[in-house]
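Q: What would this chain look like folded?
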Amino acid sequence: MMPLTLTTTAAAAKYLTSTAPPKSARDEFDRFAKWESTVRKNYDNNENQYPDDLIGTWDVQDVVGGSVIGSTKVALRPQGEVIVKPPMQGLRWRLDPGPTHLDTCTFQVLSDDGAILQYKGFVDRGSRLEARVSKRSVTLRGGVSFLMRDADGGGGDDMLPMNYKSGLTKFVMSRDVNGGDASVSESYSAEVSLTCPAVAEGEREIIDGPNGAILVTKVAGTYYAVDAKCPHLNLPMKKGKISNEGGVPTLTCSFHNSCFEMKSGKCTKWVTGALGNQNELIGGIMSSVGSKQKDIVAYSVSEAEDGTLIVTSQK
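A: My prediction, written as structure tokens:
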């Protein structure tokens, strides 16, 4: 665990005041950076390397000499998966927290000629926080390295170890906030085929899927499976209410009452209040932040001979 002397507000203030007073703004910045770096080094290091606010589709522009030489779409998926347009092949991505306000996002792509490209950019932590409750995009800027597979070490636990060959290519990437996720997923991702334990009538199971958690349930003798994350603010719907009014099983987000048909994933109500209460004022305020109205992904469910369930992409 992080030492108490570094975690409390009073202890942090004592640490900063116990050092020599800064003689310039630069000295003050260096002192703060040293303190925050010390805190991070003593942390359990349980931070999520694949945060939800970076998951989605990104528009990537390659830049040389100030001019854009090409652009493409890249999807950063849960658990470090990268999806790109064939014949390119996505490898891995992750976020590494920085010592101050900038975090580092890295992803790797295998080109059709066998070369591996590593995109390493910086994202402002404050802009990430702001984007979670607004409709603005997050932007990363960085450089592209050309890499070889036959290197020793240096890659960390999640990325391929590489020898770096620096180039002149820079990049700028912005997260698509206008519903681009589905187009990349449908075009480039592999077919889903997952197993799930048996589910009794009215019960539910949660399994890991390509977009995060999937909720699997049985309603009126029929199995259903949908993504268990509301697209409004990416909040979980694992415990959302399941109703069957008019013979149409529907999942309701517990936070702002958005409703989704479980057979198709279609959104039938969007942000009508909060915590199960219908409130036009709150609904109006909350619908002005976060994503625009979207459907969720629904899956097909079949039962195997041993009673386990097979969750697959809908045709």
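Residues 1-9, 149-156, 161-165, 185-189 have pLDDT under 50 and may be disordered.
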